[in-house]
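Bug: token stream looks shifted between consecutive jobs. Job 1:
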Amino acid sequence: MPEEVLFKFERRMDRAEIASYLRSVADALDAGDAIDLEAGGESVTMSPPSRPTFEIKAERETSSSGGTPELSVEFELEWDEGEDDGGELSIN
């Protein structure tokens, strides 16, 4: 399935700033609100259903030239467009 990027933002920031952004997303999820993303004139509003699929992935990526590996952790919410099951979000 082809992927269409609706919004992208990337910059180096300190851990406290990142935690603040993640808390904002968590607060919106907890309240059942939409998630508004805005940066550099771009914006998108996403309205996750009450029970989206939650994925956490930790990766180590090594370049083909053998440079220093890059580590990452990704948090992803995924749902079918238009999905809304009306229940509560549950993360165990």
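Job 2, same session, no restart:
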Amino acid sequence: MAYDLKGFKFDSTAFFSQEMKDAITAVRVDRPSIVQAEAMARRRRTTLTTNGKLSILATDHPARRVTGVGSESFLMADRLGYLGRVLRVIAASEFDGVMGPTDIIEDLFIMNYLVRQGGGPSFLDNKVIIGCMNRGGLAGAAFEMDDRMTSFTAESMARLGLDGAKIMFRLDIDNPDSLATIDYCAQAISDMNSYGLPTFLEPLPVRKEGVKYPVLKQADELARVAGVASALGDSSMNLWLKLPYAEGYERVANATTLPILMLGGDAKGDPTPTLGEFANGMKAGANVRGALVGRNVLFPGDDDPMAVAMAIQKIVQEGIGADEAVEYLMSVRGQDMDWLSQYLCCDEGCCCGG
């Protein structure tokens, strides 16, 4: 079936309103301890995966000063729209989990509390929640490649009962700051190992062009950097890799025995190329175990982030092909747009959360 929006245009504010966002701020001001209490009340999975595969939503781009989507430079800087799209995927779908820095993860805990106060279920129960650690390499900064650990720590993630950490290094062989970042990542992996928690490491070969560091998405380059990444830290037993899809992905999968999650890269505006890449990537090797994807789910042009997420979930968990995923996407878009509002009364004169 050919992809067709059929006149659909997703409006994030129809799912997550300004009043709901304001209710999160009110909790931050008046009852910040709710974050820890909600984290401790969350039911965690007994194992990281239910069948050896994972689909995780990435929400860490604004924390690195990355705010653009396509030609729109500040789309991810609008927290109302951004958080609404994140919640659309995590609260209203079966996506496995979410990865983000401290502010996003804590926003989700607060919203989970407000939903439960309104009589709803915990949408974070049995989800995989991964904390992002290094965001110090701000996009466009002179120190961009010196990417220090500036968000979650291993201790803070253990305290909140999170399920793992995400870190990254970009390898520019002409830039000595790459070595410093690799060293930060090795220490972070060892720190996570001391708590028995997994680390999801994103190693990216890059080459500077002007003020940017585009990723070298060639199978040979990705295979080389996978070998470097697999040996970091005091043990690789809790280590997963996050690697972009490329033609010849079999070569990338064959470079390591570690489990691999694919990433989607820049938002394409049309979800079908991403679905095709992920369907192909899942066939590249037994150690390709899913996707850790952000902008291509959150900003799929005018389409519904929840529907795109669930199509990817079907590819990862059930092994369906790209064409079937497109058909499924179109069949579920726009469903359950009242998922949050049915539990949160945020009209004038009504306290959000019941």
